[in-house]
Design a protein that fits this description.
It is a single chain. The chain is an all-alpha fold. Helices cover 84% and strands 0% of the residues. The protein has eight helices and no strands. 14% of the residues are buried.
Length: 208
């Protein structure tokens, strides 16, 4: 059953889908051209990653509630706060593993291999449709290398956007809401930190 499930998940993107027209020269248009057909699965990964980030914040909130409740009622904790304990069990032992397992599934099985093959196949079809002089003007090995680099780079961008960026933004926004409920000034401090962090990335990433 598990093998059938993985096989079905790994074929949700048709990696042999034909491209529409030539590859655009502008970056965003090229990305849309290369990824067309894979967007439903990519958005599924974004949704799971967002829920994973929200789950992290909810975990912190519930654990804080547990600590406060345990300090207030050292005797008869389960009788007094059974609902809270059950919520923690459901979130930490059921929802969180399922969401992070789903995130790993979308990245490693559904998006990664298929998006790479989808982009590479489209670039390959476009390349073999060129005239002989196209290959006379450049080394065939260098052309093949550029296709591999483009497919790999765009695949990594998609995976990291689904994983790190979406998960991180959901965690930061969820934390801001949580801190705002405690004290609005804490949310302001988080906002200041986030702006400094974005400035750091803006300066350092181009250098890296």
């Amino acid at each position: 059953w598990f093998k059938r499930f993985i096989h079905r998940a790994g074929n949700l993107i048709d990696a042999e889908a034909q491209a529409e027209g030539p590859p655009p020269e502008r970056i965003w248009a090229f990305m849309r051209w290369a990824l067309k057909g894979g967007w439903p699965v990519i958005w599924l990964g974004v949704a799971i990653s967002t829920l994973g980030g929200v789950t992290e914040v909810l975990s912190m909130y519930l654990l804080g509630r547990v600590v406060d409740a345990a300090a207030a009622t050292p005797v008869g904790f389960l009788a007094e706060h059974g609902g809270l304990a059950l919520a923690c069990v459901v979130l930490l032992l059921i929802m969180r593993p399922l969401l992070f397992g789903g995130l790993a599934l979308t990245q490693s099985v559904m998006i990664g291999p298929n998006v790479f093959k989808l982009i590479l196949a489209r670039l390959y079809r476009w390349t073999i449709g060129q005239s002989v002089t196209f290959f006379d003007n450049d080394f065939a090995g260098r052309v093949a290398q550029k296709k591999m680099q483009a497919a790999r780079s765009l695949t990594e961008i998609v995976i990291e956007s689904v994983n790190a960026i979406t998960f991180g933004l959901a965690s930061v926004l969820g934390t801001a809401v949580l801190l705002g409920g405690i004290n609005p000034r804490l949310s302001l401090l988080l906002l200041v930190w986030f702006v400094i962090y974005l400035g750091f990335l803006r300066v350092m990433l181009p250098l890296i």
